Amino acid sequence: MSRILYIVYILILTLLVFSCNSDSIDNSIQSTCKVMPFELKDIKLLDGPFKHATELNIESLQNYEPDRFLSKFRITAGLKPKAESYGGWEAETLAGHSLGHYLSGC
Questions:
Q1: What is the pLDDT of residue 94?
Q2: HSE (side-chain half, CA atoms, 13 Å) at 88
Q3: What is the pLDDT along the chain (106 residues), one digit of tens a residue?
């Protein structure tokens, strides 16, 4: 879950930086716009689309089975897989691709 908060932090920071450097902001407003660092613990998502999306992502990540992602890796290493691999990309030439997304989300 801390990884998801980190992603939210980066998105907020990016929006702040771009809004402060926008050519559409006149110079008097732009000079007062400053970005200050803050801790992830200082962020609290309120009810709304971002919190809903975060909760959906967490739920989705918790439903994956790591052993299914690792199936092709175990076969390549000469080990018996603990579970059947996922279909789609994982059954084709991009095996491992989804595992990278999964690890990034965790």
A1: 77
A2: 7
A3: 567 777 777 777 676 666 655 555 555 555 566 788 888 888 888 999 999 998 998 898 899 999 998 988 898 899 999 999 888 878 877 778 888 888 887 7
Residues 54/45, Cβ–Cβ less than 8 Å: yes
Mention every residue, 6+ apart, whose C-beta is less than 8 A from residue 89.
95, 97, 98
Residues 6+ apart with CB under 8 A from 102: 61, 64, 66, 69
Q: Are 74 and 82 in contact (CB under 8 A)?
A: yes
Whether 98 contacts 105, CB under 8 Å? no
Q: Would you list the DSSP string of 34-88?
A: ------GGG--PPTTHHHHHHHHHHHHHHHS-HHHHTHHHHHHTT---SSPPPSG
